[in-house]
Amino acid sequence: MYALFAFVAGLVFGIGLLVSGMVNPAKVIGFLDLAGRWDPSLALVMVGAVAIGAIGFVIAGRRKTTFLGTPMLLPTTRTIDRRLVVGGAVFGVGWGLAGFCPGPALVALGIGQPKAIVFTAAMLAGMLAFECLERMRTSSSARLEPAAGGTSE
Amino acid sequence: MSIDWTTFTPWSALAGGAIIGVAVALFALFNGRVTGISGIAGGLLRPSFPDWTWRAAFLGGLIVAPLAYRLLKAPPDLTIAADYPTLVLAGILVGVGTRYGSGCTSGHGVCGVSRLSPRSLVATLAFMAAGFATVFVSHHIFS
Questions:
Q1: With contact defined as beta carbons under 8 Å apart, do A93 and A12 qualify?
Q2: Which residue on chain A is closest to B36 by alpha carbon?
Q3: Mean pLDDT, residues B63-83 taken together
């Protein structure tokens, strides 16, 4: 059941990306190009998503368990540190170069776009490289300090 | 700054955004998690992944979304201006950056902002600023 609801959420999310036009990198670049002919669409996608999403999180925040009876696992991390800002900036450079972020890239992969396949493969390689580096870092520093556990938003 | 009224699609943007919001609300209420796509994908690349089923199911839903969408209308034409070497570089930066910064446009941008998380607001400002700067440099300085 849990996986089925995850599948439905992914499917609905993907349809939202298709309807919004954000699967098309040209739309994303059009938003990021403030100095050119600016396409504000992405800002309205955020407005629509946040308006509905916020209602969901208000209800979820008042509950200890989900509608399926499983525990609520919403992030509780509050630290604002260098890795948050540096990681965000590195992601932003890649986003600006290609016009793809992870969600739209996976949907474009489903359309069968060769360029989306190459981008997604490189993205997964980057994630894997990060996992390997983290493991090396935490295993070498484990004797000196507790490992900094990263949760994901 | 001049708004390009020929490409601006306010209604489909709002409607698509609302559908994304529905997905995020469903995932929070039924799965108890934030919809962070980089985190969901990255979690599949760990050595032991006992929770791979729901992660794979979510990503599978994203990938088959164009098939479901095709029942109603044709998927949009994608315009990908970047060449292959740029796409490889961009992909690596997105992969490393989203994992190092613990989130992407969905986790920090949509979910974090919906939850008014100060941490996610900072991350969102960071990737937005870097995205604006990158497009400015690549389109107006080295164009």
A1: no
A2: A153
A3: 94
- pLDDT of A150 reads 47
Residues from chain A that touch B72, judged by Cβ atoms under 8 A, are none
**CA gap A115, A105 in Å, rounded:** 9
Token duo for residue B68 = 């479901």
Residues B62 and A110: beta-carbon distance below 8 Å: yes
Name the amino acid, one letter, at A34.
L
Which helix (H) or strand (E) covers residue A37, if one does? strand A37-38
Note which residues in 67-126 of chain B have CB less than 8 A from chain A: 67-69, 75-82, 84, 86-115, 117-120, 122-126
Domain boundary assignment for chain B: 10-141
ipTM for the complex?
A: 0.96
- CA-closest candidate to residue B107, choices B120, B95, B118: B120
SS (H, E, C) B89-138: HHHHHHHHHHHHCCCCHHHHHHHHHHCCCHHHHHHHHHHHHHHHHHHHHH
Q: Which residue in the block uniquely carries the two structure tokens 């060449």?
A: B83
Beta-carbon separation of A130 and B131 below 8 A = no
Residues making up chain B, counted from first to last: 143
Which residue among B16, B80, B131 places its CB closest to the CB of A45? B16
Count of CB contacts below 8 A, A vs B? 532
Tens digit of each residue's pLDDT (9 = 90 or more) over B22-54: 999 999 999 999 999 999 999 999 877 778 999
The least confident of A73-77, A142-146, B50-54, B67-71 is: A142-146
pTM flag (> 0.80): yes
Cβ A35–B136 below 8 Å, yes or no? Answer: yes
Q: Do A11 and B81 touch (CB under 8 A)?
A: no
A65 forms beta bridges with A71
